[in-house]
Specification:
The protein has a domain at 10-72: Malate/L-lactate/L-sulpholactate dehydrogenase, four-helix barrel (Hypothetical Oxidoreductase Yiak, Chain: A, domain 1, Orthogonal Bundle), CATH 1.10.1530. Helix content is 38%, strand content 19%. The protein has 7 helices and 6 strands, in the order H-H-H-E-E-H-E-H-E-E-E-H-H. Strand 1 (76-81) and strand 2 form a beta hairpin. The radius of gyration is 18 Å and the shape is globular. The two termini are 28 Å apart.
């Protein structure tokens, strides 16, 4: 997915931003909300992470239009302590709520040395690196992870699949002065759900490490992400 394509079309960054934002506005989002999501998706494209870039615009727009995601959410703080803020996303995609959560976490960390932002009632947050990088750019060490509710991990009556806990994104970002930041921006499973093929299940028998990586890391990430 994130390998350089054999054929491609050059698109200017500003035009891609405008196009993505126009799509989201057409799907019902307010202009500011549309621009926030578009900026983060284009950032992913610019880093070469096409799996989490503007290729997702179509799917998100369909979810907004069919009501799976709320296009006009009331994103708000519903709980706060000196070092923590809880953001309710009101059923929208996770980008704007997570940006708000990161902003609160950064402000609190700069004031007290540590800050945490939690977002609930949200959909897909995209790359966790968006929000951890916000922290490192502000001079803070950032950590971000999204949890996932356990589902029915059976197919055709067989036992649990690899990646039972899904594929939560996880990222650490550490500022390093005048040098580029140290960023570990990753998924916690070997492959995303849509990348798995029937032969992937055979890893269970031939590679115990693959099994534990697929189940152990996502399980920990899901627990940490709530």
């Amino acid at each position: 997915m994130n390998q350089p394509p054999e054929s491609f079309v050059h698109v200017y960054e500003d035009r891609l931003l405008d196009f993505a934002a126009a799509c989201f506005e057409k799907a019902g989002l307010e202009t500011d909300h549309a621009r926030v999501i578009s900026r983060l998706l284009v950032n992913s494209d610019l880093r070469g992470v096409r799996s989490h870039g503007t290729r997702t615009v179509n799917g998100y727009c369909k979810s907004f239009e069919n009501g799976s995601l709320n296009p006009r959410p009331n994103v708000r703080v519903i709980g706060e302590t000196p070092t923590c803020a809880v953001i309710d996303g009101d059923g929208t995609v996770g980008y704007l709520p997570m940006v708000r959560a990161a902003e609160h976490a950064i402000r609190k960390a700069q004031e007290l040395g540590m800050g945490m932002g939690l977002a609930r009632h949200v959909g897909h947050i995209g790359s966790a690196g968006h929000y951890a990088r916000m922290c490192s750019e502000a001079g803070c060490i950032g950590f971000c992870v999204q949890g996932r509710q356990q589902g029915n991990a059976k197919r055709d009556g067989r036992g649990p699949l690899l990646g039972y806990f899904g594929n939560p994104p996880i990222c650490f970002a550490i500022p390093s002065g005048d040098e580029p930041p140290i960023v570990l921006d990753a998924a916690t499973c070997i492959l995303a759900d849509y990348q798995r093929r029937p032969e992937f299940e055979s890893l269970f028998e031939v590679s115990p490490a693959a099994y534990f990586k697929s189940n152990g890391y996502p399980a920990v990430a899901s627990i940490m992400g709530g």
